[in-house]
Amino acid sequence: MLLLVGLGNPGTKYAGNRHNVGFMAVEAIARRHNIAPWRKRFQGVAVEGTIVGKKVLLLLPGTYMNESGRAVSEALGFYKLTMADVIVFHDELELPPLKVRVKAGGGIAGHNGLRSISAHIGNDYRRIRLGIGHPGDKKLVERYVLQDFAKDEWPGVEALCDIVADNVSLLVEGKDSSFQNKIHLTMAAKGFGDEKDQPDAS
């Protein structure tokens, strides 16, 4: 089984925030692959299903972002999974909007959700970094990530989440670089980005 975790803050107040794009991506995966219904489990909501014949558990922690690791740790323990079975979808300030990078292990770049997960289970899990851009001043970061996406940003965000959902089977099969490149090329084909800007697999 693989554990696919979306990071965000619970409740309608935060639903459209940049910080919640991880939630949005995992919710899109559930819709695309007809995985339902969500149930309250593991200090959040979760749902089991299959993607390309592989069992998956989709999890949205119900704690606030800085306590995300509690839910992840509980799910890991229940299913006796390892860090290698975990894929975390999260917002990434250090990437331009709508860019995606897949990374295994490494630093947390000040992300409180990743910090909590790493503190609870260790650091060697896969991260799907969903670019939201940086406000340009460190002092503005907290306000920026807790703001809703602007009206003109939503078409790109929705396209990104749908394309992630359409291609998540590549992640499930361990084809991280193929997933990353497919996202990039499909987004470019839809008018979001530049096909010449080929991402690396870092």
Structure description:
The protein is of the alpha/beta class. The chain has one domain: Rossmann fold, CATH 3.40.50. The chain is 36% helix and 21% strand. It has helices spanning 21-32, 68-79, 112-121, 141-145, 154-172, 176-189, and strands at residues 2-6, 39-41, 44-51, 54-61, 86-92, 100-104, 126-131. α1 packs across α5 (154-172), α2 packs parallel to α3 and α5 (154-172) runs antiparallel to α6 (176-189). Residues 198-202 have low confidence and may be disordered. Monomer. It holds the Pfam family Pept_tRNA_hydro.
Question: What characteristics describe this protein?
Answer:
6 helices, alpha/beta, 36% helix, disordered C terminus, Rossmann fold, seven-stranded mixed beta sheet, 202 residues, single chain, 7 strands
